[in-house]
Amino acid sequence: MAVDVLLVGSGGREHALAWKLAQSQRIGKLYIAPGNGGTRLLGENVPIGVMEFEKLAQFAGEKKISLTVVGPDDAFVGGIVDVFQARGLRIWGPTKAAAQIEGSKAFSKQLMRDSSIPTADFAVFTNHDEAIRYVREHGVPIVVKASGLALGKGVAICRTFDEAEVALKEIMLDRVFKDSGTQVVIEKYLEGQEVSIHAISDGKTYKMFPASQDHKTIGEGDTGKNTGGMGTIAPVPWLHQNALQDIEQRVVQSTLEALRNRGATFAGVLFPGLKMAPEGPMVLEYNARFGDPECQVYMRLLKTDILDVLEACVDGRLSDQSIEWVSGFAVNIVIASGGYPEAYKKGFPIAGIEEAEKISDVVVFHAGTTFDGTLKTSGGRVLGVSAVGATLKEALDRAYEAADKIKFEGKYYRRDIGAKALAQ
Ligand SMILES: Nc1ncnc2c1ncn2[C@@H]1O[C@H](COP(=O)(O)OP(=O)(O)O)[C@@H](O)[C@H]1O
Ligand SMILES: [Mg+2]
């Protein structure tokens, strides 16, 4: 029987999920709430916001949706899964209790300490004077983090004492992240390359995805401010099988077990962000959902029908479900609005997507776009240009050729996605 699906979210991650869901052998109707200028071509966009849980649940009930799939962190952390489950609605992803692993860095750091999961040395503060004293004692560089969700803006890498003072003032006294800054994590600065790990779990067992690597900062050569992510490659060519197995055991297994022991069994995608430090792999943080843009490359690499995978996860049948991946590489180049991640203008017409998608193995996912008769920019990250190839270089060449065809005022993208991995 055809499965009607409600997909919640509006970014590149959700366009990629919609693209893959639309290819399912068993998909019925696909609704995306609220969706974007790209998802409208794959299903029906529904004007309900990601945090409007009651309205979403009502919609799912009325339309007799068989499965709801959620993208964004704030929905999980806010308890969308609990709201749906309380009404007997079938939904994919972690409960509010399990999503704390992302929603509270204080919680996740303590869990890591208790379970001997490798992570930077840290302390948690609610008192500003004590936090200042800790920074004085430990010296710089040091990392200051608002414990709660902060749209990817709550982390300050402080290279001077002044920078740490400013970060602590903003988070703890000026409360720029509101309650997300009630607790502050201060931790040791770590050197090394970053890697994104994804594992899907049904609460009983789990399956690993290939590793991926995002590029966090706005500037080439990993300079400038942090963003939501400017481009991703997968798999990571220099991360070998034994390293990945080590991460699987010491991070993924231990974390799922620790959550289960705390009565917060995790079902969904667990995405630890790692730093490959000289002292070994270290967990920077956990996310309780697909990464974005990581999800965009995963959907390009996934061979198996995604509906089979998500339903097996919801129904606790993951151990019987194989997950197959295309051999070769997938990459994505994020095309952003000029000025992002700071102030930027929107509403500019977008051209060139069709031409970009004529290049073999290229798919353009929308992130910040709207359609009102014309396709226009509506966010900081506007498009994700993805490509697959037999080699990393082939995938990158295709993606960059395609990215050059996209046109809108103020268009910006990094030209060095995957460059370090290629050179290694
Ligand atoms: N201890 C650390 N040492 C060095 N860099 C860090 C450290 N913690 C975080 N970062 C950098 O800051 C980014 C954001 O931190 P993260 O903990 O992932 O928070 P969030 O994604 O919630 O903003 C990381 O991707 C990494 O580049
Ligand atoms: Mg992060």
TrEMBL record:
Protein's recorded name: Phosphoribosylamine--glycine ligase
Family assignment from sequence similarity: Belongs to the GARS family.
Pfam family, one: GARS_C
Gene Ontology MF terms: ATP binding; metal ion binding; phosphoribosylamine-glycine ligase activity
InterPro entries associated with the record: ATP-grasp, ATP_grasp_subdomain_1, PreATP-grasp_dom_sf, PRibGlycinamid_synth_ATP-grasp, PRibGlycinamide_synth, PRibGlycinamide_synth_C-dom, PRibGlycinamide_synth_C_sf, PRibGlycinamide_synth_CS
Native organism taxonomy: Bacteria, Candidatus Kaiseribacteriota
Leading EC class: ligase
Gene name tied to this protein: purD
Listed pathway(s): Purine metabolism; IMP biosynthesis via de novo pathway; N(1)-(5-phospho-D-ribosyl)glycinamide from 5-phospho-alpha-D-ribose 1-diphosphate: step 2/2
Species of the source: Candidatus Kaiserbacteria bacterium RIFCSPLOWO2_01_FULL_54_20
Necessary cofactors: Mn(2+); Mg(2+)
Domain ATP-grasp as annotated: residue spans: 109-315
